[in-house]
Description:
The complex is a heterodimer of chains A (about 200) and B (about 190).
Chain A: H1 3-9, H2 24-29, H3 34-58, H4 67-89, H5 91-97, H6 108-118, H7 123-153, E1 155-156, E2 159-160, H8 175-196
Antiparallel strand pairs in A: 1-2
Helix pairs in contact in A: 1-7, 3-4, 3-6, 3-7, 4-5, 4-6, 6-7
Chain B: H1 2-13, H2 24-29, H3 34-66, H4 72-94, H5 96-102, H6 106-110, H7 113-124, H8 129-157, H9 169-183
Amino acid sequence: xxxxxxxxxxxxxxxxxxxxxxxxxxxxxxxxxxxxxxxxxxxxxxxxxxxxxxxxxxxxxxxxxxxxxxxxxxxxxxxxxxxxxxxxxxxxxxxxxxxxxxxxxxxxxxxxxxxxxxxxxxxxxxxxxxxxxxxxxxxxxxxxxxxxxxxxxxxxxxxxxxxxxxxxxxxxxxxxxxxxxxxxxxxxxxxxxxxxxx
Amino acid sequence: xxxxxxxxxxxxxxxxxxxxxxxxxxxxxxxxxxxxxxxxxxxxxxxxxxxxxxxxxxxxxxxxxxxxxxxxxxxxxxxxxxxxxxxxxxxxxxxxxxxxxxxxxxxxxxxxxxxxxxxxxxxxxxxxxxxxxxxxxxxxxxxxxxxxxxxxxxxxxxxxxxxxxxxxxxxxxxxxxxxxxxxxxxxxxx
Lengths: 198, 190
C-alpha cells in the first residue's frame, strides 16, 4: 500500500459521500450554498484528521472492549474545538451550519474511518487517510452545493450568474431538491464507475 | 394549545427527516420493509423521549449551574450511548417480548444523529421539561411516519419497473425527495 494510494483513496474510489454513502445528514442539510459545503467540509476534515491521528497514536493502549466510547470521546473533543473556534471567528458560517456542527460527532465517516483504518494502521498512513477522506467529502458536498445553488438561486459562492429577473428553480434549495440532486449524483457516479472502472 | 402546536410542527411541518435531514442513515437503510420500519420507529420514539428527559436534566441541573455548557456535545453523546445500552439490558431482563421486537434496532440508534440533534435543538428552543419530552416523542412519531411511508412506496416499487441505473440509493433518494415535496404542503398549517 503506497502513501499516494492511501491519500487518493477517499477522492474517488471510496468517496465517502457518493460511493460509501456515509455522512448523509450533513450532505443533504447544509448544501444549500457552495460556501456552506466548503465550511462543513473543512470542519469535518479537521476532526477527521485529528481523530485519526490520535486514535492511531493511542491504538495500543485502547482496550478492545471499550474502544467505541473512547473513540467517541476523542472525536467529541475535536468537535468541541471546531465548534468554539467557528463560533468565534466565522459567526455567519456558524449560524448557517447550525446544529450540524455539534452533529459532526455522529458523522459516520469519522467513526467509520477510526474503526476501519486508524486503529489498524500507522500514524502516518492514518493522517493521509484522514486528509484524503476529508477532501473527498469536501469536494463531494461542495459539488452538490454548487449544483443546488446554481439551479435554485442562480448564484455560485454568492456571484450572480443569471440576468436580473431570470427565473430559477427554487425547489432545488428547498429540502426536496437535496434528496433529488443527491440521488442523481449517486446514479451518475455509479455509471462513471462502471465505464471507467475505477 | 401550545402542546398541540409543538406536536403538529414536529410531526408534519418540520418533519425530522424530510425537512430537517436528521436520521437519514436509518431512514435510507431500514426502510426496505414496512414491518422493520415500524419496529425501528417504535425504538426511536422510546429512546428519543427518554434521552431528551435525561439530557434536559443534565443541561439545566449540571451543565448550566457549573457554567460548563461547552461540554454539551461530549456529555450528551456519552449519555445517549450509555442510555441505549442500559435500555437494551433492562428490556432484555424485564420484557423479552419487547426486546425481541426492538432489540436489533437499539444498537443502531446510538449512531442515529436525530437523537443527539433533537436533544440539542430542544435545549436551543428553550423548552421546559414537559415540552421537551413531548417535542421529542412527536419528532419520533414523525420519523416513524416518514419511514413507514417510504417503506410502503419501496415495497410497491420492487414490483414495478424503474431504470436499472437508479437501483438502490438513487431511486430511494428521489422517492424521498418527492415525499419531502408532499410534506412541504403542510407548511403554514400552524
